[in-house]
Specification:
Blueprint: H1 2-26, H2 36-39, E1 46-47, E2 53-60, H3 67-76, E3 82-85, H4 87-92, H5 94-102, E4 106-109, H6 122-140, E5 146-147, H7 156-165, E6 168-169, E7 174-175, H8 184-194, E8 200-204, H9 210-223, E9 227-229, E10 240-242, E11 247-250
Parallel strand pairs: 1-11, 2-3, 2-8, 2-9, 3-4, 5-6, 7-8
Antiparallel strand pairs: 10-11
Helix pairs in contact: 3-9, 6-7, 8-9
């Protein structure tokens, strides 16, 4: 029995020693143990704006028949939106890419093949971003400043590559869930409940009820005193940091 007790005590001492050594490796010079929030990179979810603006964004991967009508609705109120385009959508609808640009709306990059970016190697991430950026530049004369990952999935590797390439990765803080077949009223109610100054609102260009929802969404924003704008009128290009909630804040 005495031997068993000593053996247990020895095991405890060894485990405690291992823990102490591990913590000493993790602790920074200032004595703070890094948290997941401190080490994980984040894209931009929303902006500390102070200007009562929000960005309406539309992801385009499948279908295009509602795209022109979306722009009609926005322009009727004097607004412009941002369209994130997938590479194969650009190939299929080159005239729509040109129309989006010609009508004063902003074009963003939504990858080349709509893959799960968090599972890709750096080389494959580069291909997904660069090929579509080049397609957009060939079509309308400029490389997009903004990239949105399909499914909202990202990794530190992807975010680091975007930083190296001078591309800003955009998420959202208001998901309309329009792709789920919600009614126009249900989609708008999500904007009413969640939108705020600096919000980035996720929509899809070919969801079932986007044309019914969009006028209601615009009315909801206006009732909150918020003006819909393009992303480049909301998101800071430089001299900012992103907090642990994904909020972009001016330095």
């Amino acid at each position: 029995m005495i031997f068993v007790l000593k053996k247990k005590t020895l095991i405890k001492v060894v485990l405690i020693s291992i823990l102490i050594v591990t913590l000493s490796i993790l602790v920074y010079d200032d004595g703070v143990v890094p948290t997941a929030a401190a080490t994980k990179k984040l894209p931009i979810y929303y902006v500390e704006s102070g200007t009562q603006k929000a960005a309406l964004t539309f992801d385009a991967a499948w279908g295009a028949d509602k795209t022109s009508q979306i722009m009609d609705i926005l322009e009727k109120e004097g607004y412009r939106g941002t369209f994130f385009l997938v590479g194969f959508w650009i190939d299929k609808y080159p005239e729509k890419v040109q129309e989006i640009h010609d009508r004063g709306h902003l074009v963003g990059n939504h990858s080349t093949n709509h893959l799960h970016m968090n599972k890709l190697s750096k080389d494959d991430i580069a291909k997904e971003i660069n090929l579509t950026s080049q397609k957009i530049k060939n079509a309308i004369g400029y490389s997009p400043r903004f990239f949105r990952a399909p499914f909202g999935e990202y990794s530190n590797r992807m975010l680091e590559y975007a930083d190296e390439s001078g591309v800003q990765v955009i998420q959202w803080d208001v998901d309309t869930l329009d792709w789920k077949g919600l009614s126009g009223g249900e989609i708008a109610s999500r904007v009413i409940a969640k939108a705020k100054d600096g919000s980035i609102i996720l929509c899809h260009n070919n969801s079932d009820h986007i044309l019914e929802a969009l006028p209601l969404m615009i009315a909801a924003l206006k009732n909150k005193g918020i003006t819909p704008v393009r992303l480049d009128e909301l998101v800071l290009e430089s001299d900012y940091y992103i907090d642990s909630n994904g909020k972009q804040i001016k330095k």
